[in-house]
Every structure is written in C-alpha cells, then in structure tokens.
Design brief:
The chain contains nine helices and 25 strands. With 507 residues, the protein is of the alpha+beta class. It has two domains: 143 residues, Alpha Horseshoe (Serine Threonine Protein Phosphatase 5, Tetratricopeptide repeat), CATH 1.25.40; 323 residues, TolB, C-terminal domain (Neuraminidase), CATH 2.120.10.30. It is globular.
C-alpha cells in the first residue's frame, strides 16, 4: 500500500500547479489538504487564488480570516473583491441575494421578476437582456484581470529562463585562492531522501556531492547559546568535501573578497556586548585587523553587513555615529587608505564616505556592480515604510519596492547578471512567516520563490543565477537550503541542530 502524501507535499504540489496555470489540478490538491485539515489557513488562501468566480474567492478568503483574523494580505484581497462585486450588484444586498439560482439570474433578479408579474412581457425580456449583458461584462472584466496576472507571471518566468540559459552558456571561472590554510571541519552535513514537513521532520534531499550545484557557501554555524546570531564562520564546499572553519569565535555576516584572500565579518564581544567589523587575511600575511583601525579617528558603533565590491576596491557597511539611533551606509575606499598626499596642497579625497543620512534606518547593503548597491530603507522610526532602494556612489537613489508596509523587505541580494534582486519579506501581521521573493530591478511584480512554514531568510544567488541558497527554521532550528528557481525544487544542505546562517555563494 503506497504511503499517503503529507499535507505539506500536497500543498507544495498545488502551489506548483497554480504557478504553472493548471488551476483545476491546483484546486483538487488544495481541496485534498482541506478535506484532511479543514482549518489549514494556507490551503484556503491558495484555494481562493484558483477559484473560478469572485463569490467562491470571497468565501475562501472569509474562511482564511475565520482561521486567522490577523492575515492582512487575505483581508486586503477580500476587500478589493467585495468592492468589485458591490460595484456590479449593489452594496445593499447580502451574498445570498447575489447567488445565482438559475444561470444568468440571481436570487434578487428572480424576486424582482416575481414581483413584476403585471409588467409587459417585452419589459421582462429587456430586463433579462440587461442582466445577462452585465453578467457577461463582469465575466469579461474578471477574465481580463486574471489573464493580465497570468501574463505577468509568464513574463517573469520567461525572463528567468532566459537568464538561466545565458548564465549556463557562459559559466563563471572559479578564482583560485592562493595560500588558503586547511583548517579542521566543525561538522559534516547528513543526507536524507525524505521530504521535510515540519519541526522535527526528516530532512529534505541534499545536494552535497550530487553534481547539481557547485561552489562553496560562506556561512556562520554553531550553537547560538545567547541568541545573538554570532557563531563561528565556516566555508561549506558543495562537492562533498568537509566544511572548514575560517573564524572560530563569535562572528556574523561574513563576506569574501573577490580574490579570496580576505574575509570581513562582524565580530561580537560577549564581555562588552559590542560589535565591530574585522578583516582576516586568509593567506596568513598579517593578523586580523579591526575596521576601526583602518578608519582611524572615525568612531562608528554597531558596525555590520560588511561587503566587498565586485572589483575589491571598496567595502560597504552599516554603522551609526555616537548619539544617533539609526544606521547609515558607509563606503570605505581601500585604494585611498595608503594613497600619498595630492600634489600642490590639494585636499585629499576621503577614504571613508557616508552614503546615506537622516532619520531613516539604512541596513543590509549589497553590491550590484562596483558603482551601485541595493539596501533596506527602513523609515518606520519616522512613521514611514520599509522598502528596498537602489543607490549609486554619488548618493542618488530610487525605490525598487513601494508596497507601503504590506510587506517588510529585508536581506536583498542582486543576481549575477545584475537584472534581478532576491529578498526575504513578511507581512506585519505575521512576522514569523517570512518568505523569499525575486523582483526585476526595473520594476514589476515580485515572484514568490520560497513559501515555507516558519522563517526563510537571506537568499543568496548561485554564481550561475539558477539557484538560491537561504536559511530557514522550518524544522525548528536554522538550517541551510537551496532552491532551484525554475522548478521550485528545494534541497537541504545542513542537518546539525545548530544555528546555520548562509551569507554568500562563492564560485
């Protein structure tokens, strides 16, 4: 007797069918989930998306809100649908009045006909024609809306396929790392072929040593006893070789230089509870150096998110000046640190520049090319919203997202071809349900890539642009996963019951 698929497997299959446009199969799968768990919020939510009529969608979304009254996304969609239906039928009648008892004729229409027996037959025919015409117009409008949404999803999918094809045709050549020391492993990933379905479940299939992906993941991994997210920095080869510890103390948000000779990470001091950026020289040419030693007299607190530019000449990071409550983005030009003074008494160009300022909290900068970055623009301290912004080295910036606070975006990463950005986001009503999205840098609708129980965070592109690595606590503690963007297939990288947070995918 074959084993019955889990609810999560049925849900994932239904979501895949919905994204592929197979609405009938998707609906059947979601209904199987609901038959086994009538209060499955996510199944009802997705079922609403594949229903044929607005009335069916409204009923499904009302069920979502009955299960979870704090689902703001469902509430917003329900509000728009009810407004649309009220515009067609009038807002003084209940849903029962709008129910079709005979195709093309609602309960309200039948009552009007029954009350108008004395009206001439010609008038009844005219009235029926008007009702049928209105219903046809409404159906056309609804169908046009659905077609436009599907066209948007199809276009995004085509763009992704083109990106993957181009990247696969010209794969990047890995850069050798001279003189890298061989350090002992801290743990070994464990493979398992069984899909996971919740906390404590059997892990998903692994890609370690499978040949499906290549390169190395830069991450932090270890027991996080104080809950700060600062644990040893490790490098995880995807070819099956054992991981290596690069920094064995409390570190966070590591980033490797393009030549592989330097590592920047956030160092945390348990004694002082302070954090600062530190650079380790992996060729052993010199001891680790705090960033504060490089920037001299500038006193910057809460240093974090250090990131080398693609050409290796600059470091972007976030910090705050003493007395301020918000973080800004700074750019340190490494070429200017030891530059000789300019001739003829001309003023020297500063090596350290503050790129953002004001009352906005600016965090998580990531380089697109060596002249621009994407970062999180958090204006909530000033009563504003959270969105992603694109900024160049002159300080000129533009919004990439502008959804208000419907979604709280975080941890962006720009694709290798510079055309898309991946990020994690959540609804303010559900801060523990964080998903991963992809969006074009020139605008458009975001594409949901990872929709999993719990928190899925820090998406990081593979060098060929076909995969995303990310960390998720869907099984209880944060582990590292990989998703194939074209197929939505998810694989597991770590299984070790400690804190694992990925931050970069190296060649």
């Amino acid at each position: 007797m074959s084993e019955q698929p889990s609810l999560e497997q049925l849900l994932r299959d239904g979501m895949s069918a919905a994204r592929e446009g197979d609405r009938a199969r998707a609906r059947a799968l979601f209904e199987q989930v609901i038959a086994r768990d009538p209060n499955h919020e996510k199944a009802w939510y997705w079922l609403a998306a594949v229903m044929e009529t607005d009335q069916e969608r409204i009923r499904a979304l009302k069920k979502v809100l009955a299960i979870n009254p704090h689902n703001e996304r469902a509430r917003e969609i329900l509000k728009r649908l009810q407004t649309h239906v009220d515009d067609l039928f009038g807002d003084d009648e209940g849903e029962n009045d709008r129910q079709e008892l005979i195709p093309g004729l609602s309960r309200r229409a039948l009552i009007l006909i029954a009350g108008g027996l004395g009206v001439l037959v010609l008038a009844i025919i005219v009235l029926a024609a008007i009702i049928i015409s209105n219903n046809a117009l409404a159906a056309q409008q609804t169908q046009a809306t659905l077609a436009a949404m599907q066209a948007t999803r199809d276009q995004i999918a085509r763009d992704n396929e083109a990106t993957f094809a181009a990247a696969t045709a010209n794969p990047p050549t890995p850069t050798p790392i001279p003189g890298r020391p061989t350090l002992p492993p801290t743990w070994t990933p464990v493979a398992s072929p069984t899909p996971a379905s919740g906390p404590g479940a059997t892990p998903l299939p692994t890609v370690i040593g499978s040949g499906l992906v290549s390169g190395r993941l830069l991450a932090v991994s270890g027991p996080d006893f104080v809950g700060e997210g600062f644990v040893p920095v490790v490098e995880i080869p995807l070819d099956g070789n054992p991981p290596r510890t690069l920094y064995d103390d409390r570190g966070g948000s590591p980033d490797m230089s393009p030549l592989g000779d330097r590592l920047i990470y956030t160092r945390f001091s348990v004694g002082t509870r302070e954090q600062g950026l530190e650079i380790a020289y992996l060729d052993g040419s010199r001891p680790p150096q705090l960033l504060s030693q490089l920037i001299g007299s500038a006193i910057l607190q809460k240093q974090d998110y250090g990131s080398f530019s693609p050409d290796g000449t600059r470091i972007a990071f976030t910090a705050r000046e003493p007395g301020r409550t918000n973080n800004d983005i700074y750019i340190l030009s490494l070429n200017l640190l030891d530059a000789p003074p300019p001739p003829d008494g001309q003023p020297a160009q500063p090596a350290l520049v503050r790129l953002t300022s004001g009352t906005v909290n600016s965090v998580a900068p990531t380089w697109g090319d060596s002249t621009r970055l994407v970062y999180v623009h958090d204006a909530r301290p000033a009563g504003g919203t959270v969105d992603l912004k694109l900024i160049d080295l002159s300080g000129q910036s533009d919004f990439l997202t502008a959804d208000g606070n419907l979604l709280i975006e975080g941890n962006p990463d720009i694709s290798p071809n510079g055309q898309q950005v991946a990020y994690d986001a959540y609804s303010p009503a559900n801060p523990d349900d964080i998903d991963i999205y992809i969006q074009s840098l020139i605008g458009g609708q975001p594409l949901l890539i990872v929709d999993t129980p719990g928190r899925a965070v820090r998406p990081r592109w593979s060098p060929d642009g076909r995969f995303l690595a990310y960390s998720s606590d869907q099984d209880g503690d944060f582990e590292i996963f990989i998703v194939e963007i074209a197929s939505f297939a998810v694989y597991q990288v770590t299984v070790n019951n400690v804190y694992d947070m990925v931050n970069e995918w190296l060649p």
